[in-house]
Amino acid sequence: MAPARRQRAVTLLEMLLVVALAGILAAIAYPSYRAQLLRANRLEAIEALLAAAAAQERFHLAHGQYADRFASADEGGLRVPAVTGSGRYELSLASPATSDFIVQVRPRPGSGQEDDRRCSEIWIRADGRRGARDHRGEDSTQACWG
Q1: What is the 3-state composition of the chain as percent helix, strand, coil, each rounded to the nearest 5?
Q2: In Å, how far are 48, 65, 72, 130 from 127, measured between CA atoms?
Q3: 66 touches 125 (CB < 8 A)
Q4: pTM of the predicted model, to two decimals?
Q5: Beta strands 130-133 and 89-94: pairing type?
Q6: Is 70 exceeded by the pLDDT of residue 84?
Q7: Which residues 6+ apart lie within 8 Å of 130 measured at CB?
Q8: Which end of the chain, N or C, is more open, meaning fewer C-beta atoms within 10 Å of its C-beta?
């Protein structure tokens, strides 16, 4: 009769150790992943700002003044939507004037992008100056445009 072989199995303690290590790794990795996701989504806001600024310049060439709203061109506005394609950001014209403009963008509530507290408001002016503020109202231009 052949001797019985001893079978090796995973113990409950080993299984719990593996699950705990996986949880710790996930807890460390998730915040970094979320920060990168917010940063990547911020590029959509920058793209929308640059498109709106270019549309303002085209409008100025055609009409001799800057537009004061995002309505269709037939209605005397820009041909740029006031909300980005994914719906994460909303554009607005701050203090529109015939000789100057400021286009700004803010995260829309409920979009998930409002967690980007570093860049709560981003803008571009008619003269090309760019700026940004964090959730406390402090300058964060380098972090948002850089």
Answers
A1: 45, 15, 40
A2: 17, 14, 24, 9
A3: no
A4: 0.77
A5: unpaired
A6: yes
A7: 122, 123, 124, 141, 145
A8: N
